[in-house]
Amino acid sequence: MAKQDKQFVNDIADINTDFAQWYTDVILKTDMVDYGPVKGTMVIKPYGYAIWENIQNYLNKEFKKQGVQNAYFPMLIPESFLKKEAEHVEGFAPEVAVVTYAGGEELNEKLIVRPTSETIICAMYSKWIKSYRDLPLAMNQWCNVVRWEKTTRPFLRTSEFLWQEGHTVQASMADAERDTQTMLKVYSDCLRNLMAIPTLTGRKTENEKFAGAEATYGMEAVMKDGKCLQAGTSHNLGQNFAKASDIKFLNKDGVLEYGYSTSWGVSTRLIGALVMVHGDERGLRLPPNIAPIQVALIPIASKVDGVVAKCEQVQEELNKADIRVKFDNSNNTPGWKFNEYEMKGVPLRLEIGPRDIENGVATAVRRDTHEKLQLHLNNIVNEVDDLLKDIQSNMLRQAEDNLQSSMTETDDFNTLVDDVNNRKVVLAYHCGDPECESEIKQKTTITTRVIHSYDDNHKCIYCGKKSKYRVYFGKQY
């Protein structure tokens, strides 16, 4: 059986030499996802969807603390809606899917399958907002969107994916900016507290901002291969969409003015980030707070009297404490189960056999460190709870260490290119000129991620002109 168990693990590509294949192997072999029948689509299987549900549960609570209500808006958007905001339609034109035929006949107006919902939500807001008393208006929807990507990879970039998109309207630019910043912090706290992922947050450059926004703020997670993943964005739309959709309100002075809107979202690509930040050569490693299964309970010599009964008792105690536990009493061997749950990233494994029962203990194995411990059966809930908290904290520390080791800074452009190609994220001064930034991207495929700080006392790393800010450069997913 040892040979079979070893093959079970070695079936994953090497994380250090073929990171892309390792990622694909892990998400498929852990039963998180499968390829859909339409090119570029994915089927999220229950284990992967359970992770998404935990993200939803966390964010729904945080959204509601901010006064945001959930709603739902149509998937089909009249083409004329998209055309109202010129910069917006130009930004999404290459990615949209268009419906031209329905109900057995050609449509009088083409319908866009939503790539995002600013235009249709703003159209509805324009009906509902009449006075300052109607503000602020804050809604969120959990839905799918379609963006016809040329190159796809499950969770990271697919033609259809799941996300949430929140949309607020405020009476002032200052209030809209506050919303934008608040939601970015909600996102970064979610990744840190739930997923044990530290992020780089800040404003995006003009080249990288959302089409039609006044300002976009991003949240970047750094993967183990040194590439950046845009994990979430929050946009201050100013009055751009309000003017396009005629969102007006009577202010306190009785004057009619346009509202100030925001939009913000995260998607199922967070699951991809989770895999690539925490995974190792054995497969997934899931922080306990987000893991669908926090404890895998494995009986040893299950046919011996009392073993199954004790496992069921422990399972019941853990369930009552809201600890997500799976008691695996299947016919698979213990060795097979060890490998299965290790690959699936379950944070803690408990083994209970006749000798354990005799000694009043359960054998625990941590997924994060592979450390083996003895837990007391008469205090199993408290000791498991303490271990899960420690695993969560340790995985955050490990991710923070990886982030710090991925960071560097330089004033020399050739060094920047070499460092980024060697799996680094580089902090450097830039002039802020969109043409200069585009030239860097065209020549090197290196992009700006988020602005670190504003500084006009240095020279641009590429063109030598006066700097505007320091910005993180890196390769992106």
Keywords for this entry:
477 residues; alpha+beta; seven-stranded mixed sheet; five-stranded mixed sheet; disordered N terminus
Notes on the protein architecture:
This protein is an alpha+beta fold and 477 residues long. The protein is 37% helix and 27% strand. The strands form six sheets. Strands 3-7-8-14-11-10-9 form a seven-stranded mixed β-sheet, sandwiched between helices. Helix 14 (413-421) links the parallel strand 20 (407-409) and strand 21. The model is unreliable at 1-9 (pLDDT under 50).
Indicate the proportion of strand residues.
25-35%
Q: State the helix count.
A: 15
User: Distance N terminus to C terminus?
Assistant: 39 Å
Give the strand order, joined by hyphens, for the main sheet: 3-7-8-14-11-10-9
Class inferred from helices and paired strands: alpha+beta
Shape: globular
Q: Output mean pLDDT.
A: 95
- For the CA atoms, what is the radius of gyration? 25 Å
Oligomer, anyone? single chain
Task: Please provide the count of β strands.
Answer: 23
Major sheet summary line: 7 strands, mixed
- Percentage of residues assigned to helices: 25-40%
Which residues form runs of ≥5 with pLDDT under 50?
A: 1-9
How would you briefly describe this protein structure?
The chain has 477 residues and is an alpha+beta fold. The chain has helices at residues 2-10, 19-29, 46-65, 79-83, 86-92, 118-128, 173-193, 240-245, 269-278, 307-320, 334-343, 354-359, 380-405, 413-421, 434-444, and strands at residues 33-35, 42-44, 69-70, 76-78, 97-102, 105-113, 137-146, 160-170, 200-203, 215-222, 228-238, 248-250, 256-258, 260-267, 295-299, 325-327, 348-352, 361-366, 372-376, 407-409, 425-430, 447-454, 469-474.
